[in-house]
Amino acid sequence: MFNEMLFLPKLHINQMPEIMQQQRLETCSDAELIQLFHCSPGQRESVFSEIYRRYAQRIKIYCVRVVGSEEDGSDIFQETFVRFFRAAFREPHEKTMDKPIDNIGGYVMRIARNLCLNHKRDTKSTVTIDEWERAMPDFPNYEREELLNLIAVALEYLEFDYREAFVLRFYQGYSYEEIAELTGASISTVTNRIWRAKDKLKTVLKPYLADLEEFAE
Questions:
Q1: What pLDDT score does 135 carry?
Q2: What CATH code would you report for 126-217?
Q3: Fewest CB atoms within 10 A around its CB: which of 105, 157, 164, 176?
Q4: With 0-12 CB in 10 A as exposed, 13-18 as middle and 19+ as buried, what is 140?
Q5: pTM of the model
Q6: Domain range summary for the chain, segments of one domain joined by +
Q7: pLDDT at 23
Q8: CA–CA separation, 160 vs 163, rounded Å?
Q9: Three-state SS for 26?
């Protein structure tokens, strides 16, 4: 086995301020990061790296799960951050922005959601039960990892609104109120979508799983 430490760059004294700067960025709020992005051009790369570190994983999971494709989801994920960078690069007073960005996570998620909606309009977003059954082998037992993989595939069977609500709730950990705010739906509608998503997943997975306690109320 190769020693990974051999491939790590050696730190020099003149690199220490950069490390300390990154540590300071980690303590900044979203609004402070955006302010630094505009006021300190020399720090833009470091600021963007910190923003990416904070939000990239959850945004990619959302994109991949909602569109049901690793390749398409990855493309949408990359385009999301390209568009965010362009938006952040504009000065807050420009007419192209309604107000300064103070909630980066929510702002990036809205970009990702809009791109996923565009993808939904342009492509087939669900599979039929027959297609699902042809795609899934008949395994006798499932561990947790296999169960999660089955759920990921079964999500493709759901309509976009149900799929998105399920992903936001169970993959992203959003509250019902947060999902309602992001999607523009009422809390009762969000509740209904999540219930229907769980119910449809139970129906699709029932022939393959003996125990669906994870989806119990």
A1: 45
A2: 1.10.10.10
A3: 105
A4: exposed
A5: 0.68
A6: 26-124, 126-217
A7: 59
A8: 5
A9: coil
